[in-house]
Specification:
This protein has 321 residues and is an alpha+beta fold. It folds into two domains: 166 residues, Fructose-1,6-Bisphosphatase, Chain A, domain 1 (2-Layer Sandwich); 142 residues, D-Maltodextrin-Binding Protein, domain 2, CATH 3.40.190.90. Helices cover 29% and strands 29% of the residues. The protein is built from nine helices and 14 strands. A hairpin with a 2-residue loop joins strand 11 and strand 12. Helix 1 runs antiparallel to helix 2 and helix 4 crosses helix 5. The longest helix is centred in the first third of the chain and has 16 residues.
C-alpha cells in the first residue's frame, strides 16, 4: 500500500525543514528556499518510489530542481508528488511563525496538475464540512460554520491572507460578527489549521496560489474536512496553460474529488518556525529536534511526530496519534 511510505516520506520534509531553519531570521528568503529545495531533492533520491512532481517549484525552465514533471526517487511504485519545500519563505527569513516544509503524495494520475495562477479557496474542518460552499457569501459561510459548531458567530475565527484583494472579504466577515486571523503568508497552513483542534481557526477563505490549493486539498481529504477552489486567471496565458494541464472544468468549482482523485493520498508537513499547528526546528549541541504532522487518507490517521536527529546520523522518533 502506497501510504506505508509515510515514514520514509517524512524524512523528506524533515530534511527540507532542517536545512531551511538554518536561515531562520537571517533575512534571506531566497537562501532559505534554496536550502529547502536542495535538501528535499536529495532526500527523495533515497526513497524507493518512481515519483513525478506535479506541483513544484515551477516549470522546468524556471526551476533547476523539483520542477513540474521532474522524476524523483530511487525507483519503485509510481507516485504523484506535490511539494512546497518552504511554505512561507518570508516567515522563515524574518523569524515569523507557521513556516512549513510540505508535501503530498498519491498514486500516479490522481493529483491535479494545477497551473501557477490564483485560486479562490474555502476550507473548514470535518464538523462544518457539509455546510460551506465557495459560491455562498462570506456571511452565509460564517453563520453556517457557527451553527454547525454550536457557537455564536462572534466565537468564529476566519483565517485570511493579508492582501489588498481581500479588502471586501475582510469587511464583510467583520460585519458578520466573526473575528479574523490575518496571515502574511502560508495559506496551506491557513486551510489545514481549520481541521486541527487547538489552532483556534475555524474557517479559511480567500485567494492564494493554485498549487498550494492542491496541497491543502490533500490534507483536508485525509482529515475529512472541506476544501473547495475556483481558478482566478490573471490573463489568457494562464487560462491556456490550465486548459492544457488540468482535467477538471477550469471554470467550475474545484472539489476535493477533482483536486485529489483518490482515497490513498497522504499529506506531511514539518515545522520550520514555531506556530499553532507545529513547533519549529530546535537545534542543540549535537543535533536537532523536528515536529511534523502526517495524515493518511487510507487509514484515517493523523499523527504528530517528534524526531531527534543526531549529528552522527542517528534518528529516532516518537509518534503521537
Amino acid at each position: 500500500m502506497l501510504t506505508t511510505r509515510i515514514v520514509e516520506m517524512l524524512e523528506v520534509t524533515e530534511a527540507a525543514a532542517l536545512a531551511a531553519a538554518r536561515w531562520m531570521g537571517k533575512g534571506d528568503k531566497h537562501a532559505a528556499d534554496q536550502a529547502a529545495v536542495e535538501a528535499m531533492r536529495a532526500a527523495f533520491d533515497r526513497i524507493p518510489i518512481s515519483g513525478e512532481i506535479v506541483i513544484g517549484e515551477g516549470e522546468r525552465d524556471e526551476a533547476p530542481m523539483l520542477y513540474i514533471g521532474e522524476h524523483v526517487g530511487a525507483g519503485g511504485e509510481e507516485v504523484d508528488i506535490a511539494v512546497d519545500p518552504l511554505e512561507g519563505t518570508n516567515l522563515t527569513a524574518y523569524g515569523q511563525p507557521n513556516s512549513l516544509a510540505v508535501l503530498a503524495f498519491a498514486p500516479k494520475g490522481t493529483l491535479l496538475n494545477a497551473p501557477d495562477t490564483y485560486m479562490w479557496k474555502i476550507a473548514t474542518g470535518p464538523a462544518a464540512a457539509d455546510v460551506v460552499h465557495i459560491d455562498a457569501t462570506p456571511t452565509e459561510n460564517v453563520r453556517n460554520v457557527a451553527k454547525a459548531l454550536g457557537r455564536d458567530v462572534e466565537d468564529i475565527v476566519v483565517c485570511i491572507l493579508d492582501r489588498d484583494r481581500h479588502a471586501d472579504l475582510i469587511r464583510e466577515v467583520r460585519q458578520a460578527g466573526a473575528r479574523i486571523r490575518l496571515i502574511s503568508d502560508g495559506d496551506v497552513f491557513g486551510a489545514v489549521a481549520t481541521a486541527i483542534e487547538g489552532t483556534g481557526i475555524h474557517l479559511y477563505m480567500g485567494a492564494g496560489g493554485a498549487p498550494e490549493g492542491v496541497l491543502a486539498a490533500a490534507a483536508m481529504r485525509c482529515i475529512g474536512g472541506c476544501f473547495m477552489g475556483r481558478f482566478n486567471f490573471r490573463n489568457d496565458e494562464e487560462r491556456k496553460r490550465a486548459e492544457q494541464m488540468t482535467k477538471c472544468d477550469i471554470d467550475g468549482v474545484l472539489t476535493m474529488d477533482c483536486l485529489v482523485n483518490t482515497d490513498e493520498a497522504a499529506f506531511i508537513a514539518t515545522g520550520v518556525t514555531d506556530g499553532e499547528l507545529l513547533r519549529g526546528v530546535k537545534f542543540f549541541g549535537k543535533g536537532a529536534r523536528t515536529h511534523s504532522i502526517a495524515m493518511d487518507n487510507k487509514t484515517g490517521t493523523v499523527r504528530f511526530i517528534e524526531t531527534v536527529h543526531r549529528t552522527g546520523g542517528e534518528r529516532f522518533w516518537v509518534r503521537r496519534d
